[in-house]
Q: What sequence folds into this?
């Protein structure tokens, strides 16, 4: 991980803002279940640039979302972790796929790429569930039904979104690379 150039810093800021907009305004929420493409900017950065850029964008985008949605609480830093973890898993996973398979792009090994995105979604869902549990205990709204009742649905929603992302990422990344990003 080298120094971040001005171009990359601006790109990270734009993608953090895009993450925030997708999270706040283009997300379908039904109770604890969310259907969103908010992870797309984080995954693009993870695939194109790596862990540093995806971590900064995920953390910054989610921080803005948390502050504008719920304000600053003792659990705010915890809520930053799931999108950061997703970006890290995908960034490092893409590096492993490329290095072990001598391919230029991780989706050239489609099974490994889909497994990587699904694994990142599962870990993200587990992290969100754990943080929801901790948040509910700290703030006194714990209910087993609230925290764990829709876990399976959220898990399958995350897996479905990961599969969609595995189809969306390749053409988006290719177009961004052609555009000089």
A:
């Amino acid at each position: 991980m080298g120094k971040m150039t001005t171009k990359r810093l601006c790109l990270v800021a734009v993608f953090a803002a895009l993450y925030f907009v997708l999270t706040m305004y283009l997300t379908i929420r039904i109770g604890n279940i969310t259907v969103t493409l908010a992870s797309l900017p984080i995954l693009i950065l993870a695939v194109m640039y790596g862990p540093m850029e995806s971590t900064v964008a995920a953390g910054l985008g989610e921080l803005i979302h948390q502050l504008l949605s719920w304000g600053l609480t003792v659990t705010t830093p915890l809520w930053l972790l799931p999108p950061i973890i997703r970006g890290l898993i995908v960034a490092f996973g893409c590096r492993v796929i490329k290095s072990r398979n001598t391919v230029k792009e991780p989706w050239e090994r489609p099974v490994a790429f889909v497994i990587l995105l699904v694994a990142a979604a599962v870990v993200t869902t587990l992290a969100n569930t754990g943080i929801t549990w901790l948040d509910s205990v700290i703030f006194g709204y714990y209910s087993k039904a609230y925290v764990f009742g829709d876990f399976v649905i959220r898990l399958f929603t995350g897996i479905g979104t990961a599969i969609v992302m595995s189809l969306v990422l390749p053409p988006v990344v290719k177009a961004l690379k052609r555009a000089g990003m």
